[in-house]
């Protein structure tokens, strides 16, 4: 009887894992317009953040860069994904966004081209990150939502905009994922 229960549990877990989308294969463009996927960061932990240059949370760029520098050598990659969905707070072009991030916050982590994070025009990455199959469903609520993706391309946990990059909660999740 125990063996049957064990096998049923394994089957359920493997079916759930098969349903979860692999975020590494979704096509994106980098901030310079070159085709990319998160597969470039396979075997790394990736923190995907929808970013904006004119938001009350924009100062989080500084904390994100510090987080990136702190954990980069251990296998963390932060990917900033500019979005203009919330209050029109990312109106710039990719060139303007890139210049703003590098000159104002010395951002060195990768940035993608600007996409939509919500609604019918949501980029497939955000559709996958927020869908019920990802394990942490619900729409992106504002700029600077954070999605922690494991080395296998599966969403581990997500954080609201109010969770600062330097928060103990976020850093503990990153450290756990890096083990």
Largest sheet: 4 strands, mixed
Would you list the SSEs in sequence order as H and E? Answer: HEEEHEHHEEH
The chain-level mean pLDDT equals 90
Largest sheet: spatial strand order: 4-3-5-6
Helix count from the secondary structure assignment = 5
Oligomer: single chain
CATH class: Alpha Beta
| CATH homologous superfamily placement | Glutaredoxin
Per the CATH scheme, the topology name is Glutaredoxin
Global morphology: globular
| Count of discrete domains | 1
Structural class: alpha+beta
Total number of strands: 6
Salient structural properties:
179 residues, alpha+beta, Glutaredoxin, two-stranded antiparallel ribbon, 5 helices, disordered N terminus
The gist of it:
This protein has helices spanning 2-19, 60-71, 94-105, 124-130, 168-178, and strands spanning 28-29, 35-36, 45-51, 76-82, 146-149, 155-159. It has 179 residues and is α+β, with helices and mostly antiparallel strands. The strands form two sheets. The protein has a four-stranded mixed β-sheet, covered by helices on one side. The chain has a two-stranded antiparallel ribbon with strand order 1-2.
Characterise the protein shown here:
The protein has one domain: 3-Layer(aba) Sandwich (Glutaredoxin). The radius of gyration is 17 Å and the shape is globular. The relative contact order is 0.19. The chain contains five helices and six strands; from the N terminus they run αβββαβααββα. It has helices at 2-19, 60-71, 94-105, 124-130, 168-178; strands at residues 28-29, 35-36, 45-51, 76-82, 146-149, 155-159.
């Amino acid at each position: 009887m125990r063996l049957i229960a064990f096998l049923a549990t394994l089957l359920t877990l493997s079916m759930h894992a098969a349903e979860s989308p692999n975020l590494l294969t979704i096509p994106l463009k980098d901030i310079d317009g070159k085709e990319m996927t998160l597969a470039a960061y396979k075997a790394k932990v990736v923190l995907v953040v929808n970013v904006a240059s004119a938001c009350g949370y924009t100062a989080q760029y500084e904390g994100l860069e510090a987080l990136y520098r702190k954990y980069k050598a251990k296998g963390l990659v932060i990917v900033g994904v500019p979005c203009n969905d919330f209050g029109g707070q990312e109106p710039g072009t990719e060139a303007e966004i890139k210049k703003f991030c590098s000159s104002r916050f010395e951002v060195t982590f990768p940035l993608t081209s600007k996409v939509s994070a919500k609604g019918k025009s949501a980029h497939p990455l955000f559709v996958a990150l927020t869908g019920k199959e990802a394990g942490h469903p619900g729409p992106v609520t504002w700029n600077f939502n954070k999605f922690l993706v494991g080395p296998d391309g599966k969403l581990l946990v997500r954080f609201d905009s109010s969770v600062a990059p330097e928060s103990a909660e976020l850093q503990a999740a990153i450290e756990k994922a890096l083990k």
